[in-house]
Design brief:
- The protein folds into 2 domains: 70 residues, Orthogonal Bundle (DNA polymerase, domain 1), CATH 1.10.150.530; 283 residues, Aldolase class I (TIM Barrel).
- It is of the alpha/beta class.
- Helix 7 packs parallel to helix 9 and helix 10 packs parallel to helix 11.
- The two termini are 26 Å apart.
- The protein contains 12 helices and 14 strands.
- Strand 12, helix 10 and strand 13 form a beta-alpha-beta unit.
- It is elongated and about 70 Å long.
- Bound molecules: iron/sulfur cluster.
């Protein structure tokens, strides 16, 4: 993080609970364009990058902002006012915070930024889904999605720029991972999607299922979700309505369980045996399905939260009757829901949507086997809402994207 100020005020220097972790990762930028794949630091964390002059207020905690105010002789209660303006009253600038003294608004504006990304593309689907392609301060691009489903207003949020997991059917992993997102960058997605809502609409659910593997950036994901579930100063979304989706990293699942935050855990299985899963989800070679299921069981024992398994159904690859029977054997007896999602083709990748017959047969086998299964309808097909598609298309063929609105 750049701590050099262009103002007369000393620069804010946050030292919050997770700043040590952030420092270890956030200060590794070389200033050069990041390579497609970046080596992790000693603590296993990927670097984050911060090139802006002013500090991202979304990276700051309540104690940090309170200290900053106290240092400038402003009362402590102003910190709560500022965060409520940002997270609850959808303020986009300090100038809009009309119950703050003018001098404070001016100082805040000199020291901090609320939003640091620009919206490179904003797409609307006929089914109400909206997708944003955000360009970050260092040029990295991420996607996030707002889904409307009855009264639900769910958002799908990214945790990394790119992804290292390499799932063969996913556009996000095609170019590897560039870096972890900061806590502020994760929160900024939530706030930008919240701003797409009408005044009488409220965010109801969060899924950490966008670009990246959330458990590979766990400290920052947990920091951001603390704010998301904070009913007093943050977004006030119940942890029961927050889902963290992972390909299955057993040590990180154990860390998540130990964090005592009862978020919903969704594990992307995509194959019922190691031979096939090694091909579809290469990171499986270092874990194996059994170790993932053991970690999932420990998570369930600790949190008592029902597990969800995700299974992208790929035509001719993992949609056979044998695969369905093997899935039944794996999941039978677990308090779990299986979400099956027929594949959404990605331009340039050779994978296909399963045939209606194959879907029907797969479903019948699972139901006959006593599995609690839901076949999810894909939303936003017409706007490349599957993970990483918009970013990839936008980089390669900007002319083919129908951008309905830009901010
Ligand atoms: S599906 Fe998820 S974990 Fe797999 S490469 Fe894509 S973003 Fe990464």
């Amino acid at each position: 993080m750049n701590t050099t100020s262009g103002t007369n005020s000393p620069r804010p220097t946050p030292e919050g609970p997770s700043s040590a972790d952030r420092k270890s990762a956030d200060h590794q930028s070389t200033g050069a364009a990041p390579p497609a794949v970046v080596a992790p630091s000693k603590d296993g964390a990927l670097p984050t990058t911060d090139t802006s002059e002013r500090v991202a207020i979304l990276d700051w905690t309540m104690p940090q902002l309170t200290q900053w105010l106290t240092d400038r002789s402003f009362p402590k209660f102003r910190a709560g006012q500022i965060f409520r303006w940002i997270y609850q009253r959808r303020s986009q600038s300090f100038e809009q915070m009309t119950d703050l003294p003018k001098d404070l608004r001016k100082q805040l504006d000199s020291a901090f930024e609320i939003f640091r990304s620009t919206t490179a593309a904003h797409q609307h689907s006929a089914d109400g889904t909206e997708k944003l392609l955000l360009q970050l301060a260092d040029g990295g691009r991420i996607e996030c999605v707002l889904l409307r489903d009855g009264p639900r207003r769910s958002i799908c949020v990214s945790s990394q720029v790119g992804c290292a997991m390499g799932c063969v059917f996913c556009a996000s992993g095609l170019d590897g991972v560039e870096r972890n997102l900061t806590r502020g960058e994760i929160l900024e997605q939530m706030l930008k999607l919240q701003q797409l809502l009408e005044p009488d609409e409220r965010l109801s659910h969060i899924v950490m299922m966008g670009m990246g593997e959330p458990l590979a950036n766990l400290p920052r994901v947990l920091d951001a979700l603390e704010v998301a579930k904070d009913a007093d100063l943050g977004l006030g979304i119940s942890p029961r309505r927050i889902t963290i989706s992972t390909v299955g990293l057993p040590p990180a699942i154990d860390k998540l369980a130990a964090a005592d935050a009862p978020y919903h855990l969704a594990i992307s299985l995509h194959a019922p045996n190691d031979e096939l899963r090694n091909r579809l989800v290469p990171v499986n070679k270092t874990t194996g399905i059994n170790a993932i299921l053991d970690a999932a069981d420990r998570y369930f024992d600790k949190t008592r939260r029902r597990l969800t398994f995700e299974y992208v159904l790929l035509g001719g690859l993992n949609d056979s009757a044998l695969c369905a029977r093997q899935l039944v054997q794996l999941l039978r007896g677990r308090t779990a829901m299986l979400n099956v999602i027929p594949y959404n083709p990605v331009p340039g990748l050779p994978y296909e949507t399963p045939s209606p017959d194959a879907v029907l047969q797969f479903r019948r086998t699972l139901l006959d086997g006593g599995i609690n299964v839901m076949f999810r309808q894909r939303k936003g097909d017409d706007i490349q809402a599957a993970c990483g598609q918009l970013r990839r298309l936008r980089e390669r063929e900007p002319q083919v994207i129908g951008i309905s609105k830009q901010k």
